[in-house]
Design brief:
Blueprint lengths: L6 E5 L4 H12 L3 E6 L3 H10 L4 E5 L5 H15 L4 E4 L17 H28 L3 E6 L12 H20 L5 E8 L12 H10 L8 H12 L10 E4 L7
Parallel strand pairs: 1-2, 1-4, 2-3, 4-5, 5-6, 6-7
Helix pairs in contact: 1-2, 1-7, 3-4, 4-5
Amino acid sequence: MSSSSLVALVTGAGSGIGRATAIALAHAGHHVVCADIKGAEATAEGLVADGFSSSGHSLDVRDSAAWEALVAQLVSANGGIDVLANVAGVVSATGIDTVIDQTEAEWQRIIDVDLKGVWLGMRAVMPQMISRGGGRIVNVASLAGLIGIANLVTYSAAKAGVIGLSRQAAIEYADKGININVICPGIIDTPILGDITAEMRSANAAATPLGRLGRPEDIAASIVHFAGPGGAFITGQVLAVDGGWAAQ
């Protein structure tokens, strides 16, 4: 299939890695469906203004009915979805995320967005991929799903879950023509970092072997690779895009 014929659905497209992924996939020739709880329409409008093919949709990834409605709409309008990039994610709103101090409500919110949302997206999109002969799915996990990082217990559990979910599904559905892979970003300079101090930013950059924070475009480039011709014989893989952090 030519990339110019492909439809890519990107969650979390309103900002950060999701927005960078939507832009990168558009530059690669895809029709990009931008989805997010807020900001997706603005990303799509920007792409259209720059001459690309895109649409924007409000989506709460925790809502199974919303997923089903969006997929039905896209199948009707575009014929189907060829690429799903599950990028949407959250961290603790309180800044506290330890086993002892995390609240049950905040635990559930993070798990629902970061893990359940990925599963719901796959569940909604994969049947039409199977009926059309296959597709590509790239799920964004985190370095925190691979190694222990302080004050990220719920986030770590959710992202480790994304890895397990993705690898199992990659084997389960390989014979249906669906390639499923995972990106594990390191510390990326996005709004999810919140209000960290300049000192913390410098310390994180210094702790990264490549000597800088990651950029959203670094992650987007790897997602485009998995979604494109280079990813044709790759499935069930977990790629750390972390400046060398996990190799230490």
